[in-house]
Write a structure and sequence with these properties.
heterodimer, A: 329 residues, alpha/beta, Rossmann fold, 5-stranded parallel sheet, two-stranded antiparallel sheet, 43% helix, B: 325 residues, 2 domains, 7-stranded mixed sheet, 5-stranded mixed sheet, 12 helices, 14 strands, 38% helix
Chain lengths: 329, 325
C-alpha cells in the first residue's frame, strides 16, 4: 500500500522536527543548559516517525532511551517534552524524569526507563491489560540491538506469545550497543529478530531509513495485534550518526562508516521521494523551516521555565491516598 | 470465633477481593490448577479461569513486569513469587519499575501491585528456599513491606494491600502457614503502617515480627514468672514503620530488644536500632540488642540451621542481657 502525499508530507515534517530537536538538545547539552546524559537519534528519524504514524493515542508506547522522537510524536505538549530534558518544573514529569525517563500517560507514552529491557516486561503487562479488558489497544515497545541480550526480553517474548497479547516489539537495530556490534556480542542465524521466531513470534526485517517501509511493516504488525493474533517483531535496520551519548567521540567505529550512512539519510530519501512525486522544493523547505521554528519555541519555553522546588524531592514517593481501606466491601 | 490457618486466611482474602473487584487478578508459578505451592491460591482458578488466574512459566522478571504494566493501566495484580529467595530474579522490576514509576513520572503512573512471597527458615530447605530478604526491600523508597504474624493480620493486611494504590511486597513466613487463629469471615482491611502491641509490659520492649513474634510472646510469658514485665510489639509493616507506637513504648520501658530472622548485619533490626539511637537516645538505659541470625547463609544440616537461626532461647537470653546491663 502506498501512502498519500499528504501523509508523507506530515512525516517529512515530523522527521525534520526530530532532527532539529536532537540538534538543539545537543547544542544545549554542550552549553551546559541540559544536565546529564543525552542519547541522540539523529539518523534514526524514520524508525520513530514510521511507527508513530501507525499508532493511536490510546495505544501504549514504551520508548527506549534513544527515543525523544517518540515522546514528541505521542500527541502531547511538545514544549513540555523539551522542558523535561532541561530538568524544568514545567516538564511533563516536572523535571524529575529527564531525557531517559519521560512519560506522558494521557497520550499513551508509558515512559522510557534507563535500564534497557526493563520496560519490555512492563509492555507485557499493558498488552495483557488490553486483552483482559477486551479492547483493541496495542502496546509498542522500543528496543535496541543491545536489549537483545537481556533475559527480561526473552522471558517476556515467551509469555507474550503464550498469552497471545497485542504487542509489537520494535527492534531499532542501529548496529551498536555503545561500542559493541551485535555480531560480536550475539549469536544468531541471519538477523537478531530471527530469535523471535523461536517463540513463534513473526518478525520482519526492513530498511529502517525508509519511512514508508517502516510504516507498512508496523501497520501489518499492529493489524495482527488488533485482530487478536498476538505479538510481532519488526526489526528496523538503521544507524545513529552520533556516539552513544552526546560527547562520545565514538572512536570505535571504522573510518568512513558514518559518511556511508549519512548518504542513506532517511530525511534526504523522503525529500527526494516527495520531489519525484511533484512536490515543490520550496514547499519542503518551508516544512523544514517550520519544524525549526517549532523547536526553537520549545527551547525558549524551556530556558524560561523554573527548576523544581526542594519540596518536590519528597513528592510522589507514594500514591495518594495511601490507604484505600474504606473502599466498599 | 472460628479458627482458620494462616494460609486459609490469605486464601479467603484473595477470594473475597477477586469477588469484589473485577480488576484483581492473580499470577504465578503453579497458582492455578495446583492452587499454589502452599495452597494460598486454592480454588481461584476453578472459579475464575485462565483470564484472572495465570499459571506462569519460571519467569519472575516477566511475571512482575507484567504485573507492573497491568497495574499502570489500573488493574490490581497479585503476583506470587514462590520463595522470597527468587526475588533476585525480578529485583529490577521491583526496584527500577514498581518503586519508581510514580515518582519519576511525577505521579502519572501508579503501580497497585502486590507481590506475595514465602520467606523464612526452619523448613530444612536451605540456601535458596529459606532466606529473609525483607531488609533488601526496605532500602527502596516507594516499596511498602508488609510482614504479618497471625492469620487475622494476614487476611486484613492482604485485603488492604490489594486495595492500596502502591506496590507492596507481602511476606508470608512459611513456618506460619499452618498456624491457626481467629479470623472473621467477612472482609476487613487493617491499616498499613500500624504496629500492634501484642502484649503490654513495663520493663522492656521486644520488637518482633512474623515468626519471631511467637518466640517473643513465649519469652514474655516465661519471664512473667520471674516478675519481669515484657512488652511485645509487632510492627506488622516494616515500611511504612510505625515509629509512634514503638517510641511510646520505649519511652515507657527504656530497654529494647529487636528480634529478626535475617542475618544480623544490615537486617531490619539494625535500622530500628539506628532509628532509636538517632531519635530516642535519651530514653535508653541500655544499648538496643539485636537478636538475629548469625551472618551466614542458611545451611542444609538441621543442626547448623537451628544453630544459626534465632530461636526462643536466643530471644530469652537477649532480653535478660539487656535487663542486666
Amino acid at each position: 500500500m502506498s501512502l498519500s502525499t499528504e501523509k508523507l508530507k506530515k512525516m517529512y515534517y515530523d522527521m525534520n522536527l526530530i532532527r532539529r530537536f536532537e540538534e538543539k538538545v545537543e547544542e544545549h547539552s554542550m552549553k551546559g543548559n541540559i544536565p546529564g546524559f543525552i542519547h541522540l537519534s539523529i539518523g534514526q528519524e524514520a524508525c520513530q516517525t514510521g511507527v508513530m504514524h501507525v499508532l493511536k493515542e490510546t495505544d501504549y508506547k514504551f520508548p527506549d532511551h534513544r527515543s525523544h522522537g517518540i515522546c514528541l510524536l505521542s500527541g502531547g505538549d511538545k514544549n513540555r517534552v523539551m522542558a523535561e530534558i532541561f530538568a524544568k518544573k514545567t516538564g511533563i514529569c516536572e523535571g524529575k524524569g529527564g531525557s531517559m525517563h519521560i512519560a506522558d500517560v494521557e497520550v499513551g507514552n508509558m515512559g522510557n526507563n534507563a535500564i534497557e529491557g526493563s520496560i519490555v516486561a512492563s509492555g507485557l503487562g499493558t498488552a495483557y491489560a488490553s486483552k483482559y479488558r477486551g479492547n483493541d489497544n496495542v502496546t509498542a515497545v522500543f528496543i535496541g540491538d543491545g536489549t537483545c541480550g537481556r533475559g527480561e526480553l526473552h522471558e517476556s517474548m515467551n509469555m507474550a506469545a503464550s498469552l497471545k497479547v497485542p504487542l509489537i516489539y520494535v527492534l531499532v537495530n542501529n548496529g551498536y550497543a555503545i561500542s559493541t556490534k551485535a555480531e560480536q556480542a550475539h549469536s544468531y542465524p541471519e538477523h537478531l529478530s530471527d530469535r523471535a521466531k523461536g517463540y513463534e513470534i513473526p518478525a520482519e526485517v526492513v530498511d529502517g531509513n525508509d519511512v514508508e517501509k517502516v510504516y507498512s511493516a508496523m501497520e501489518k504488525a499492529v493489524k495482527r495485534a488488533r485482530n487478536g493474533e498476538g505479538p510481532s517483531m519488526i526489526e528496523l535496520l538503521t544507524y545513529r550518526w552520533q556516539g552513544h551519548f552526546s560527547g562520545d567521540p565514538a572512536s570505535y567505529r571504522p573510518e568512513g562508516e558514518v559518511e556511508k550512512w549519512k548518504e542513506k539519510c532517511p530525511i534526504k530519501r523522503l525529500n527526494e521521494k516527495l520531489q519525484s512525486e511533484g512536490i515543490d522544493k520550496e514547499e519542503l523547505i518551508k516544512l523544514e523551516e517550520d519544524a525549526l521554528k517549532e523547536v526553537e519555541a520549545m527551547v525558549e519555553f524551556s530556558l524560561e521555565s523554573p527548576e523544581p522546588d526542594f519540596e518536590d524531592a519528597m513528592k510522589y514517593i507514594y500514591a495518594e491516598p495511601y490507604d484505600n481501606r474504606e473502599e466498599a466491601n | 470465633m472460628r479458627k482458620i490457618k494462616f494460609s486459609q486466611a490469605l486464601n479467603e482474602a484473595l477470594h473475597q477481593e477477586m469477588e469484589r473487584d473485577e480488576d484483581v487478578f492473580v499470577l504465578g508459578q503453579d497458582v492455578g490448577r495446583m492452587g499454589g505451592d502452599f495452597g494460598v491460591t486454592k480454588g481461584l482458578w476453578k472459579k475464575y479461569g485462565d483470564r484472572r488466574v495465570i499459571d506462569t512459566p519460571l519467569s519472575e522478571a516477566a511475571m512482575v513486569g507484567l504485573s507492573n504494566g497491568a497495574a499502570f493501566t489500573g488493574l490490581r495484580p497479585v503476583v506470587e513469587i514462590m520463595f522470597a529467595d527468587f526475588i533476585t530474579e525480578c529485583f529490577d522490576q521491583i526496584v527500577n519499575n514498581a518503586a519508581k514509576a510514580h515518582y519519576m513520572f511525577s505521579g502519572q503512573l501508579k503501580a497497585p501491585m502486590v507481590l506475595r512471597t514465602a520467606n523464612g527458615g526452619g523448613f530444612r530447605a536451605a540456601y535458596h528456599h529459606s532466606q529473609n530478604p525483607e531488609a533488601w526491600l526496605m532500602n527502596i523508597p516507594g516499596i511498602t513491606v508488609v510482614a504479618p504474624s497471625t492469620p487475622y493480620e494476614a487476611k486484613g493486611l492482604m485485603i488492604s494491600s490489594i486495595r492500596s494504590d502502591n506496590p507492596i511486597v507481602f511476606f508470608e513466613h512459611k513456618m506460619l502457614y499452618a498456624t491457626a487463629g481467629e479470623v472473621p469471615e467477612e472482609p476487613y482491611a487493617l491499616e498499613i503502617g500500624k504496629a500492634k502491641i501484642k502484649r503490654e509490659g513495663k520493663d522492656i520492649t521486644v520488637i518482633a515480627s512474623m515468626k519471631m513474634t511467637e518466640y517473643a510472646l513465649k519469652a514474655a510469658e516465661e519471664l512473667e514468672k520471674e516478675g519481669i514485665s515484657v512488652e511485645v510489639i509487632d510492627p506488622r509493616t516494616l515500611v511504612p514503620f510505625d515509629k509512634e507506637t514503638i517510641y511510646d513504648s520505649v519511652a515507657k520501658t527504656n530497654r529494647v530488644v529487636v528480634a529478626y530472622e535475617s542475618p544480623k548485619t544490615g537486617g531490619y533490626g539494625a535500622e530500628i536500632a539506628g532509628m532509636l539511637n538517632d531519635e530516642m537516645f535519651e530514653f535508653l538505659k541500655a544499648p538496643v540488642k539485636r537478636v538475629a541470625s548469625l551472618d551466614c547463609p542458611v545451611a542444609f544440616s538441621p543442626k547448623l540451621e537451628d544453630h544459626t537461626l534465632p530461636n526462643y532461647n536466643d530471644v530469652l537470653s537477649g532480653i535478660k542481657e539487656v535487663l542486666d546491663y
